[in-house]
Structures are given as C-alpha cells and as structure tokens.
Amino acid sequence: MTNHNFYNKILKNQDIYSVLKKLGSPIWLYQADIIKKKIQQLKKFDIIRFAQKACSNIHILKLMKKNNVKVDAVSLGEIHRALYAGYTNKNDDIIFTADLFDKKTLKKIVEMNITVNAGSLDMLEQLGKISPGHKVWLRINPKFGHGHNKKTNTGGENSKHGIWETELAIPIIKKYKLKLIGLHMHIGSGVDYQHLKKVCNTMVNYALSLNQKIQAISAGGGLSIPYKSTDQEIDIEHYFKLWNQTKKVISKNLKTPITLEIEPGRFLVGESGILVATVYAIKRVGKKIFTLVDAGFNDLIRPTLYGSYHHISVIKKNNINDKKKKTMKTIIGGPLCESGDIFTQNEKNELIERELPEIKIGDYLVFHNTGAYGATMSSNYNSKPLIPEVLFENNIPKIIRRRQTIQDILNLELNIKKEI
Ligand SMILES: *Cc1c(COP(=O)(O)O)cnc(C)c1O
C-alpha cells in the first residue's frame, strides 16, 4: 500500500503570498488543522506525549496542550518551553527524558518535582541522592535498534540511549526509595510491524522479569510519515493493536492497571509544516543546473545531515501558471558557503537532480513535510538569523516566532560585562 497523497498542500498559494509580502522570505509556515487531525488519529492511546524536540515553539506546545497532549522535554530549555506553554508539574504533564543530567537541569527537576525518564544508571544515583522518592521511568535499551542510519538508531550496542543493564536499576531505585512509574522504549520501528512486534515482546519480557509494580509503559515515538510518494503511511490501527496487546499482557501478569503512552514527534507535526524560500540564482555548472534559494541548511538541515528527501514544489512569482508545463532538472541549493548546502542529495551525499516545473528568478520553492526537525534544528551558521514561524489556525495566520535580527546574534558578543 503506497500513499499517493504523500504531501499535503497545507495552504493556498494566496495565503503564502500574503504572508511572504508581510514577513519576507524564507519562512516556516504551519497548519494547525493538520496537527489536530494527527492528534485525533492517536486518540486510542491512553496518553499522547509530544516529543517537543521535533517542533518546540511555545505556541505549538499550547496547541498540543489545548488538545490534551502531554509533553516530553529533553533539556532544561524544553522544560522552560513547556512551562511557558502552560504545562505544570501536575499529572506528569511534563516528563524529562535524557541520558544525563547537567547541574542546572537536575536542580530545576528536583525543585519542580518533574518526573524523570532515566536513560542511565548515573541519573538514578544522582537524582536519588538529592531527591529520594522522586518519580522515575526507565528508558530501556533493548540491545537492538532499527534502521540502517547510524545517526538515528536509538537502540543496540551503538546507541548512547537508554539503560543496557536494566536489572541494575532496581537496587538503585530501592536504595533511594525512588518511585518507579513506568518502562519506556523508543526504538522507532516505523512501518515495520514485524520489528514492532519484536519491540513489544521485548517490553513484555522486561516488565515481567523486572517484576516491579509499574503504572505505565511508553511505546516511544518513531512513527514515520511518508516523505516520498513511494513511502507507506503508517497503519495506526495495527500499531495500536500491537501495543495495546502488550499493555494487556503486562497488566494481567503484574496484576495492576497499566497506562499506555505514545510519544511521537514527527508524526504529529511533520506534515503540518512547510519551508518557503525564494529563488535568487539559477546557474549552469557543467551539464547540471543549480537553483539557489535564500534558505540553507542553517534553516533545514535534514537533507545535509541524513540525506533526507523533502518534496519540493514551485510557486510562480506572479501566480501565473505555466500552461506549457515545461519542466527542468535541477539541483536545489542554499546560500551558505559550504558545498553540503544542498537540499537534493542522498544518504551518500551525492547530488540528485530533481525534475520540477520550469523555475525563474523570483519564484518560490516550497519544501514540504518540514514541520518536524525543521525549525528546531536550525542554526546561525554563516551568521544567518533564524527565520520566522507562522501558524495558520482557522485560516488566520499568527506569527509565532519573529525573525531574528543580525543584531540579536551580535549582541551575544557585544557589551560583555561579566569578567571571568
Ligand atoms: C526524539 C524522540 C521521540 C520522537 O521521535 P519521532 O521519531 O519524532 O517520533 C520520542 N521519544 C524520545 C525519547 C525521543 O528522544
């Protein structure tokens, strides 16, 4: 089953023009309706917890909260974002997931009594010592992962994530009277249900062999979205069935009710966002044509980092459609002084031509499905300011992040008052 509607035309061209006219290019645009639709698709799970690192804008978090979605934080900054968005330390609204604590983060977590999903035994020791009785989850490394991409594998011998010797966590938990709430695994099977089954069975094995009175299990995230027309759409019903079965078996064996959490990032926001950039140069290099836009990997790094594919469409400068339907093959790049600043490349960093409707200077390129790991992975490389984010809700655009100014960047280095 392939999904031929693999990218959403999330906005009308007219809406895109009007925002560009006011706020300039490049820009991130999000459609709230799509996020809400994705949340709905997961409503069978007891708790949906948004892995905010995918798109952590406070206003996106507010939208999540309004729709009964809880939140995961992986840093002190993300805890602060959650608090600004209105989340509290009640009902495990915020869970902190990491493999280590730095001093400031640990202090805040203890002060606010935020539940911790621990990915290392050291975290349990350090937390237990200063906050006996604290609520914890164990993030398990089940000794296997998924996928071939070394950079995104979240389990197995080559992953820094999770606890390998899970049984050693129990004496530490006992020593400090920590309260073990749940078991967590974030492996990311995507649409590989055979693999997912293995993950589920492994969760059962851990729950039964640890034999602790837990209250919850978490399936983690890793629900994939179709980026290419040949990518499969995830079968949520199938996904839920496997995990719900897991929950039931654990609940029956431990003789206690279990809450089932799911913790997606990409699935909730990926398809809701686009990056819009303007074409400023089209040049011939040997036999190839390079089309260069004003957004670079400082904005969207996924193609450079992982060789990720994003569908690209063209919006004409004057909204006049080309009746001749002429196309061109081109490589799409950004403005950075760096050869890797190419949006059309594969995992081996080979440049791949894309066939697109004929592009002219001043036209806009839309990078689709960039709502997850787009804006949040942006940087100031080449001293490029962060670009604005706009959220459309009920057809009304709202600026949810202003454009950073060059002065904003420089100010970090100017007028430094504190001496070492
Ligand atoms: C990144 C992350 C997620 C979300 O991953 P997606 O692939 O975006 O769904 C969930 N849980 C944890 C602990 C993560 O680090």
Would you give an account of this structure?
Strand 7, helix 8 and strand 8 form a beta-alpha-beta unit. The chain has twelve helices and 17 strands. The protein is α/β, with parallel strands linked by helices and 420 residues long. The protein starts with 12 loop residues before the first helix and ends in a 9-residue tail after the last helix. The model has no long low-confidence stretch (mean pLDDT 95). The protein is globular and about 70 Å long. The strands form two sheets. Strands 1, 10, 11, 12, 13, 14, 15, 16 and 17 form a nine-stranded mixed sheet that branches. An eight-stranded parallel barrel has the order 2-3-4-5-6-7-8-9, surrounded by five helices. 28% of the residues lie in helices and 21% in strands. Pyridoxal-5'-phosphate binds next to helix 10.
